[in-house]
Specification:
The structure holds 2 protein chains of 2 kinds. Chain A has 2 domains: about 35 residues, no CATH class; about 80 residues, 434 Repressor (Amino-terminal Domain) (Orthogonal Bundle), CATH 1.10.260. Chain A is mainly α. The longest helix of chain A has 26 residues. Chain A is built from 7 helices and 2 strands; from the N terminus they run E-E-H-H-H-H-H-H-H. Chain B is α+β, with helices and mostly antiparallel strands. Chain B has 2 domains: about 160 residues, Cysteine proteinases (Cathepsin B, Chain A); about 150 residues, no CATH class. Chain B is built from 11 helices and 8 strands. The radius of gyration of chain B is 20 Å and the shape is globular. Chain B starts with 12 loop residues before the first helix and ends with a helix. The chains are: A mainly alpha, B alpha+beta. At the A-B interface, strand 1, strand 2, helix 1 and helix 3 of A face helix 8, helix 9 and helix 10 of B.
Chain lengths: ~130, ~325
């Protein structure tokens, strides 16, 4: 990549930041060049973010309809999935899955609820709500 | 606060941190040099490590390879500390900062508020430097940020003690004694040999063979669901290659810069030719990324076989390239 070919496409995903890439300058030497972003990066980043957002939106609808617990919504909102939530809380996957259902969630002991809330970076009360 | 600390923008967090840290301690070493000397370039396709259902694809050696690699090859006197209790980890950080130390930390990107929201994923091996503290705010030199940033104590605690894959466990590190001037020729040769060996390793998941296996997997992606899973799968590959601080082309440009710099430092001109060839390979990687992104957006028809063919061509190119690198290293008589 030549220095003049370094994309400066103003990626929304960089939120105004610039990232460093390496490119060949006119003297043939590689050097660090600040880039405002490349559309390719934006496409793949948005794709990943939108996939997580889609899961959160679906989970919210399910939670409102009483088909799943608020925990499922908050899990996806924190960009996690069952495997990751299980890892960060130390709760077995099958137990996490049980708590994603309204009945399992209703029986959650306060201590465990707090553990989930901690891991998701929200308060225990906020975990009950689906905003 | 360590006086006269100078922040430097870098492409990759770990090599950027080591470059700034060593420069601060009197050993000027560029990011590219740090990356290359640690033999951090690689390729790995690890289907058993899944993140949101997608396999891990990496263009470099695993996290901490740069730090540990440099510690070993440069014979650095470095200290590493992890903590079971977050308060102890924060207290220790404060004590080191009060003693004027420049401290490196392993953190989770997700919990760092100064990161752009779209880039905050649960990646636990992000490295940064702390150079000071003002009450409850830490002064941070994050190599992938253009300028220095600040981070509140509570946020930094969360980021340091995030759990899950590659959990940092509060890891902090610092340089305890001034590093000695290295023998660039000896270290350079060794680093070149190691990278060539890894890239040509007779293991199915690593290096050139890893690329071929990934190409085979791409070809077999199911398209029955309209290609949704296939798009996420190839998007993930491109993300690992371009979006997370690789300096473009999956670290290939960064490594080319290392080859150039090593050539200039040691006078071994053959490395200059290698650098130009690797830049061309990096450009092919960028073309692969562009082709994949166009398919993801639906501008071109989704065709896994086209991408697989590109990846195979890249594997063939890199095979020849690293064989040449191996020969250049063997022929290098200091």
């Amino acid at each position: 990549m030549r220095e003049r070919d370094v994309p400066q496409e103003g990626n929304a995903t960089l939120a105004g930041h610039r990232k460093a890439v390496y490119a060949v300058a006119d003297d043939g030497k590689l050097r660090l060049v600040s880039s405002r972003g490349w559309e390719v990066e934006e496409i793949v980043t948005r794709q990943a973010v939108e996939d997580l957002e889609r899961r959160a939106t679906l989970a919210r609808a399910r939670a409102r309809a009483g088909e799943s617990s608020p925990l499922e919504y908050h899990m996806y909102r924190a960009r996690m999935d069952v495997g990751l939530l299980s890892q960060v809380t130390g709760v077995w996957r099958w137990r996490v899955r049980r708590h994603l259902k309204p009945a399992g969630f209703a029986r959650l002991p306060p201590a465990l609820k707090l553990r989930y809330a901690e891991a998701l970076g929200i308060s225990s009360e906020a975990l009950d709500r689906v905003d | 606060m360590p006086d006269s600390f100078v922040h430097a923008h870098a492409a990759h967090c770990e090599s950027g941190v080591m470059s700034s840290l060593l420069r601060h301690h009197g050993l000027p070493i560029s990011e590219a040099m740090a990356f290359g000397l640690a033999s951090a370039l690689s390729f790995a396709y690890l289907p058993f490590l899944r993140i949101n259902g997608l396999p891990l694809v990496s263009y470099r050696m695993p996290p901490r390879a740069v730090i540990k690699g440099l510690e070993r090859s440069l014979g650095l006197d470095m200290r590493f500390e992890t903590f079971r209790s977050p308060p102890a980890g924060m207290d220790r950080l404060d004590a080191l900062l009060d003693a004027g130390k420049l401290v490196g930390l392993q953190t989770s990107v997700f919990w760092l508020p100064y990161f752009p929201p779209d880039l905050r994923f649960h990646f636990n091996a992000h490295n940064l430097l702390v150079y000071g503290r003002e009450r409850d705010e830490y002064l941070i030199s994050d190599p992938v940020a253009e300028t220095t940033v600040r981070c509140a104590r509570e946020d930094l605690r969360r980021a340091r003690f995030a759990r899950g894959m590659l959990a940092p466990k509060g890891l902090l590190y610092y340089v305890a004694a001034r590093p000695a001037a290295p023998d660039w020729v000896r270290l350079g040769r060794r680093a070149l040999a190691r990278t060539a060996r890894i890239m040509l390793a007779p293991l199915p998941l690593i290096g050139v063979r890893g690329m071929k296996l990934l190409a085979w997997q791409i070809e077999r992606l199911p398209l029955a669901d309209g290609g949704e899973h296939a798009r996420l799968y190839i998007g993930n590959i491109v993300r690992m290659q371009e979006e997370i601080g690789t300096g473009g082309g999956g670290f290939r440009f960064l490594y080319a810069s290392f080859l150039q710099e090593l050539a200039a430092k040691t006078g071994h001109a053959a490395l200059d030719g290698l650098a130009s060839r690797l830049v061309e390979i990096g450009d092919r990687w960028r073309e692969f990324a562009l082709a994949a992104a166009r398919m993801i957006r639906g501008r071109d028809a989704l065709s896994p076989s086209v991408l697989a063919a590109r990846l195979r061509a890249l594997a063939a190119d890199e095979r020849v390239f690293f064989q040449s690198q191996h020969r250049a290293q063997r022929a290098w008589v200091p």
